[in-house]
Amino acid sequence: MKIGSVFLILLGLGIAAIGGVFSILMWQSFQRAREMHNWPQVQAVILSSEIEEWQHDEFSPMEYRMKLLYGYEWMDEAKTGERLTSRGNPWSNKKNAVTKQLEKFPKGAKTSCYVNPARPDFAVLKPDSKAAGYSIWFPGLFVVGGIGIVVRAALKIRPARSVH
């Protein structure tokens, strides 16, 4: 057995495994986003809208994020939410970008939010993007390429047939 072929088989398996892991993660992200887009939308009112500042230490740059509070009604019960997306409200070191985004949600503005019917206290103003599902082909290339490397290397290991 050639050591080079064994190396190529292990390399191909590693590449295919990494591609497989990323394919699975992207599929899960797509499924979560697709589910969120099917959550019921209800009317919401922005109760407060401001910029929150945070600095890790005196040597770190200042970071900013939107601090939102919105009210909505679910099954005749008043609820409040704080999340822009399922991951919360992202931090940024660009105050202008956060200020510009905050202008879309002024206090008193009416908007809609997506409510998780299984957990009505969990609502978001923006559902996750389905982009991961449209991009899953990319890590899929690593799976196919890794399997191709394994097959080519394995074919070189087989002894050549003798012709009589």
Q: Any chance you could write out the topology, listing elements then pairs?
A:
Blueprint: H1 3-37, E1 41-54, E2 63-74, E3 77-81, H2 95-102, E4 110-115, E5 123-124, H3 131-134, H4 137-157
Antiparallel strand pairs: 1-2, 1-4, 2-3, 4-5
End-to-end span in angstroms? Answer: 24 Å
**What letter string, H or E per element, gives the SSE order?**
HEEEHEEHH
Percent in helix: 40-55%
Number of strands: 5
Q: Average the pLDDT over all residues and give the rounded result.
A: 92
**Biggest sheet strand line-up:** 3-2-1-4-5
Which descriptor suits the 3D outline?
elongated
Low-confidence stretches: none
Describe this structure in words.
This protein has 164 residues and is of the alpha+beta class. The chain has 2 domains: 3-34 and 134-157; 40-126, no CATH class. 41% of the residues lie in helices and 24% in strands. It is built from 4 helices and 5 strands, in the order H-E-E-E-H-E-E-H-H. The protein has helices at residues 3-37, 95-102, 131-134, 137-157; strands at residues 41-54, 63-74, 77-81, 110-115, 123-124. Strands 3-2-1-4-5 form a 5-stranded antiparallel β-sheet. The chain is elongated. The two termini are 24 Å apart. 13% of the residues are buried.
